[in-house]
Amino acid sequence: MFCRMLLSVLIRQKKKLFLIALTVALGVSLATAMLNVMFDVGDKVNQELKAYGANLNIVPRGSAVISEMYQLDNNDKQQAIQYIKQDDLVKIKMIFWAYNIVDFAPFLTTQATFNDKPITVVGTWFNKHLNIPTGDQVNTGMLAMKSWWTIEGNTMTDDNLQGAMVGESVAKQWDLKLGDTIDIISTKTNKKFTLTINNIFHSGGAEDTQIYVSLPIAQNIADKSGLVERVEVSALTTPENELARKAAQDPNSLSRTEWDTWYCTAYISSIAYQLEELMPDVRVKAIMQVAESEGSILQKTQLLMLLLTILSLICSALAISNLVTANVIERSTEIGLLKALGATNTAVAMLILTEIFIIALLGGVFGYFIGFGFAQIIGHTVFGSFVEPKMIIIPLALIMVILITFLGSLPALRIMMFLRPTDVLHGR
């Protein structure tokens, strides 16, 4: 009997129930889209922010300690500089969080003269292909990390041992153009090096007064074969919290549980610690301005998405409340007759809730797939990439459907409970 009554209601009230299903579908679709993006936005926001520079700086441990201990100025730092072995750089991609290391590039700064005037020459990897001992292969270098630079000319390559990238200020000072050749003389060995201007770049910083060359050329100019001065690293990280800040102060102060949690989470401090574990001769410094900005932007983005999700559910619940209330009022005579024949408030409520939940679940299924489509539109429009489906969204969507349907039905159930058969059957 219950099933027959339920089927009869679904057929007779199909237009109004369709509106309820549509309301649920719209609410769930927006919530699904926001949650999918929210769970996936962390890596995508970090990936976008990685285009604006490194968040870790690797320097030789000796020179870092001396500089910090004696507060050396720039001239004294040049005397205290130590170096990192170039062959050790593959270890950067061998830590626990190796796949979170997006890019890294070594730098070796040296001095030379051009037209009898001093000039800074910087050696680096532009786009280096590396074979990692673990069997992985990666491409990394400065060009990917300095994507905001404006560069004229063909892309610089690491095997171009005669080419140079010249800063905009240097080019203007000596009226240099693409294809020109320049002779620079090493202040270290007094050797002359002839370079062809492959690129002219604008960085907006001090780099515009420098010349960038392939790392082997800078090592020859500085007479530092196989050595680099520092390494900039761009890593995907988890926003810092109290545990991360505590570990950054003193990892040994952590309990065993805290240690495991910190070490196995991609905090910038744990990545720095793991790099120092594998490369004991270096000091890894986190560029906290970048790291904290990333965390702040990510948290605010996720909070915005969560608020939009909650707002969409509240709006859906209000819309369902109006629709179900109107449905109950319209069927008041039918409900009064059921009560007059002996039906309890619980039985009538179960009938109303069952029909609403069936329609809501159908709307929720459609809403989930529509929401996933919205998530892909957001992903491709904002981040230019696919948003991975998260299985946790399916039970969350089910909970959302049940929650907004139940809350939206409460006002209608209240009206039904106080409805008296004598009033509705006599037209009062």
From TrEMBL:
<protein>
    <submittedName>
        <fullName>Putative ABC transport system permease protein</fullName>
    </submittedName>
</protein>
<feature type="transmembrane region" description="Helical">
    <location>
        <begin position="391"/>
        <end position="413"/>
    </location>
</feature>
<dbReference type="GO" id="GO:0022857">
    <property type="term" value="F:transmembrane transporter activity"/>
</dbReference>
<dbReference type="InterPro" id="IPR050250">
    <property type="entry name" value="Macrolide_Exporter_MacB"/>
</dbReference>
<feature type="domain" description="ABC3 transporter permease C-terminal">
    <location>
        <begin position="308"/>
        <end position="417"/>
    </location>
</feature>
<feature type="transmembrane region" description="Helical">
    <location>
        <begin position="347"/>
        <end position="371"/>
    </location>
</feature>
<dbReference type="Pfam" id="PF02687">
    <property type="entry name" value="FtsX"/>
</dbReference>
<keyword id="KW-0472">Membrane</keyword>
<feature type="domain" description="MacB-like periplasmic core">
    <location>
        <begin position="18"/>
        <end position="222"/>
    </location>
</feature>
<keyword id="KW-1003">Cell membrane</keyword>
<keyword id="KW-1133">Transmembrane helix</keyword>
<comment type="similarity">
    <text>Belongs to the ABC-4 integral membrane protein family.</text>
</comment>
<feature type="transmembrane region" description="Helical">
    <location>
        <begin position="303"/>
        <end position="326"/>
    </location>
</feature>
<keyword id="KW-0812">Transmembrane</keyword>
<dbReference type="InterPro" id="IPR025857">
    <property type="entry name" value="MacB_PCD"/>
</dbReference>
<dbReference type="Pfam" id="PF12704">
    <property type="entry name" value="MacB_PCD"/>
</dbReference>
<dbReference type="InterPro" id="IPR003838">
    <property type="entry name" value="ABC3_permease_C"/>
</dbReference>
<dbReference type="GO" id="GO:0005886">
    <property type="term" value="C:plasma membrane"/>
</dbReference>
